[in-house]
Design brief:
Layout lengths: L14 H4 L20 H13 L1 H6 L9 H11 L8 H18 L11 E4 L2 H30 L2 H6 L4 H24 L17 E4 L1 H8 L6 H21 L1 H16 L1 E4 L1 H10 L6 H12 L6 E4 L2 H26 L6 H14 L3 H8 L9 H21 L11 H5 L2 H64 L1
Parallel strand pairs: 1-2
Antiparallel strand pairs: 3-4
Length: 477
């Protein structure tokens, strides 16, 4: 049954998938970091990982700061139950994107991204997005290794010289294991190719994951077709930005790279705790008391970046992208799909429960960001639309310097005033151009009249001279 959309997209009828998802959070199946399985499952997974470790270490993907072969192997194990996308689901995805693109044309001046529309399962999402994840993860892992070496005493660095290659391989495997688990988690929960507002899908591809969307919509009292069209509209809107704002993708990725270049590891608190042990005293009671204090302390190294401004810039960009998407989709679908407001609210809850860029980057890349202020950014774009219209609003994406700042997201008045000033200047220039054109036309008309008058006077003068000459000749006769 099409339910008015011209295509069918059934709710998931798998009882196992539905169990545990009908809670107060409509996207409750998207809780990142949710544990599962007992000790036996963990040991079994560890044994499977070790079975392919030797080949992974010696492969091309095992070289470098991250063992990507191992990461992919672990991620694939976590999503091994993923099923191929059915032809019916693939057609539903294509129709939903086509419909969403048609409606988005009324809400934004940015044209459709065109390209390819794809329906992925979790395995296809992993394979398609892994290259972009590698681009963001590699610089972080490399500079993390460098920071770890810098934090070590010089004597320790000299002692490990002969073992440096093995240590690098072990570090690459460690990063690979962490990345594999993180990507496996994301792959089972992602709804679109550029989910979370991150441009991780290949350029020119608008992709949806219908099986994951079905699981998400199972806990909603909303027709599955409406959920699919809403998700399609969000992805199509993102792709318009990524396609027609050419600097945007590079700015997001370069912010991650810039943050990574400034990574530092602070172990001063660990050294201070070691000094407090006072092992030289030989007093067993003092040592026992010191160890008791250590048990309640966080002795993990503190990781930060000298380029903290890059993280702040990334937070602002992610908020502006998702805020713009949220506003444009609400404008395009609000009067066409009654459940748009409910879906937007559900999407906001999904961000809180884990479906957001900051948490995805934290799990995969290790960058700790504040939650992007998407709702505040959406309100800013709404006010900009009311003030100057969608065309002037979308022109702010022409250059990074035109975009709102982090302060503007919290207090949009100054940004709105700047848009109004630009709009006034543009209208003044148009009126001034019309005035100049009118004056030129008047000047041309005046010159034409003057030219006609000179010609008439000249002709009159010639006739007068001719008459005087005739009279003179007559008198002489």
């Amino acid at each position: 049954m099409s339910k008015g959309f011209g295509f069918s997209f059934p709710n998931s009828d798998d009882d196992d998938d539905n169990d545990g998802r009908r809670d107060h959070n409509p996207f409750g199946g998207f809780n990142f970091g949710a544990g599962g399985g007992g000790l036996g499952d963990m040991l079994n997974q560890f044994g499977q990982m070790l079975s392919g470790m030797g080949s992974s270490m010696n492969s091309e993907g095992g070289a470098g700061p991250v063992n990507y072969d191992l990461a992919k192997r672990i991620a694939m194990q976590e999503i091994s139950a993923s099923k191929p996308v059915s032809p019916e689901d693939a057609r539903a995805v294509e129709e939903s994107v086509r419909l969403a693109e048609l409606w988005l044309d009324d809400a934004t001046t940015l044209p459709t991204a065109s390209g390819t529309v794809s329906a992925w399962n979790s395995v296809e999402w992993l394979e398609a997005t892994l290259p972009m994840w590698q681009r963001m993860v590699s610089p972080v892992a490399k500079h993390m290794n460098d920071a770890q070496l810098e934090s070590m005493p010089e004597e320790a660095r000299n002692m490990m010289g002969p073992l440096s290659q093995m240590m690098n391989q072990m570090s690459g495997m460690n990063f690979g294991m962490q990345l594999g688990h993180a990507l496996g988690d994301l792959a089972s929960q992602a709804l679109t190719g550029s989910d979370f507002g991150l441009p991780i899908a290949p350029a020119g591809v608008t992709a949806l994951l219908p099986q994951n969307i079905q699981k998400a919509s199972a806990g909603l009292d909303i027709p599955a077709q409406e959920v699919l069209v809403y998700v399609a509209a969000r992805e199509a809107a993102r792709q318009r930005l990524f396609k027609h704002v050419p600097w945007l993708v590079e700015r997001i990725v370069s912010s991650v790279e810039e943050y990574a270049m400034g990574l530092v590891i602070d172990t001063s608190h660990i050294e201070e705790a070691a000094r407090d042990l006072n092992l030289e005293s030989g007093d067993p009671q003092a040592i026992q008391d010191a160890i008791g204090k250590l048990q309640g302390m966080d002795l993990s190294p503190k990781i930060s970046s000298r380029n903290a401004a890059a993280a702040a810039r990334l937070e602002t960009l992610l908020a502006l992208v998702e805020g713009w998407v949220e506003h444009v989709v609400s404008e395009a679908l609000g009067e066409r799909i009654p459940s748009t407001a409910a879906l937007t609210e559900a999407w906001a809850r999904r961000r809180v429960s884990g479906g957001s860029a900051d948490q995805a980057l934290s799990k995969v890349v290790g960058i700790e960001l504040s939650a992007p202020k998407v709702s505040e950014a959406a309100e800013l774009w709404h006010r900009a639309t009311v003030a100057v219209g969608p065309e002037q609003r979308d022109k702010t994406w022409d250059h990074a310097d035109f975009l709102p700042t982090a302060d503007n997201i919290d207090n949009p008045a100054a940004f709105i005033d700047s848009l109004l000033d630009d709009s006034t200047d543009e209208g003044f220039e148009q009126e001034f151009a019309k005035l100049e054109q009118m004056l030129r036309e008047q000047d041309s008309g005046a010159e034409g009249n003057a030219s006609d008058g000179d010609t008439e006077n000249k002709n009159t003068g010639d006739d007068s001279d001719k008459g005087d000459k005739d009279n003179g000749e007559k008198n002489e006769g």
